Amino acid sequence: MSTNNPRPSKAERTASAREKAAQMRAAQEAAQKRKSLFVKLGVLAAVIVVIALVVTLIVQNNNAKIADSGAVPQGGTAAGGIMVTSPDTVAQKTIEKVDIKTLEAPAEAPNPATPRDLTVADKGEPINITMYVDANCVHCADFEATYGDQIEEWLANGDVTVEYRNVGYLDRGSPTNFSSRGANALACVADESPAAYMSFVKALWGHYPEGEMKNAELADLAIQNGAAESVTSCIEDDKFRPFVQYATTAGQYDGVAGTPSIFIQGKEFALGTQDFPTEVEKAIAANK
């Protein structure tokens, strides 16, 4: 028995050819889309690599080894603080050089905190306020915005001295070590232009909502607030970074866990549960 297999008609052959052509076009378009996607992914990967390299270079540059020892700015204390005696003066420094290798790590940090060398004024003298603060700390910025003017008024009236222990606790969250660089800038202003220190304090924390600054921007801000042009080289050269590192390490060893941490006449102020102006005024009255 034979089976008849008639040849496809011309119309059928044309339809089949069109279908194959359509399939080929679809395959080509899919291949082109895959190629385009691969190209885009390749470009994105390259961009990510470049960004990673840039960030790495920034971190390496800002995390360059800080010397163990270094100079102390005007107003500097043995604990790594800067003692302010009026709105436009700082005290004479009490030490010429700091060396982090002289600090002994405790078996465990004390609790409650026991900061070294807290100043307690004698009867009849301006009381002392010691503050651990960080340039990258939002709560420090809020504290300055709330009480900065009052602190300057107490300084102007001769009621208080204020020791700013500017620490770099929050460097761990900053690829540019802004906490330590900000503290270095503060030390530079105290050393080069002590009369501008309090103005720079206000400006530095006032800038907090706008984010971190480069050293050149820190220098510009300092000059805009009364510092001499010479502050630029001090900031750019990280002159007082060893001093900042010393203050930071000493604070950690002494159990000061966060910023701001405030001590009035040697006693810790309970931020959030006590009223700051009330506690300071009580201490002023008690020391008359």
How would you describe this protein?
InterPro entries: Thioredoxin-like_fold (IPR012336), Thioredoxin-like_sf (IPR036249). It comes from Glutamicibacter mysorens. The chain is α+β, with helices and mostly antiparallel strands and 288 residues long. It is built from 8 helices and 8 strands, in the order αβββββαβαααααββα. It has helices spanning 10-62, 138-156, 178-192, 197-206, 215-224, 231-236, 241-253, 276-286; strands spanning 69-71, 82-86, 89-90, 97-99, 127-133, 160-166, 261-264, 267-268.
Quick recap:
The protein is of the alpha+beta class and 288 residues long. The protein has 8 helices and 8 strands; from the N terminus they run αβββββαβαααααββα.
User: What's the number of structural domains?
Assistant: 2
Mean pLDDT: 88
Low-confidence stretches: 43-62
Q: What is the terminal-to-terminal distance?
A: 129 Å
Helix percent band: 40-55%
Largest sheet: 6 strands, mixed
CATH architecture of the largest domain: 3-Layer(aba) Sandwich
What is the name of the CATH superfamily of the largest domain? Answer: Glutaredoxin
Total beta strand runs: 8
**Element string (H = helix, E = strand):** HEEEEEHEHHHHHEEH
Helix/strand class = alpha+beta
- Strand percentage lies at 5-15%
Number of helices: 8
Shape label: elongated
CATH class of the largest domain: Alpha Beta
Q: State Rg.
A: 32 Å
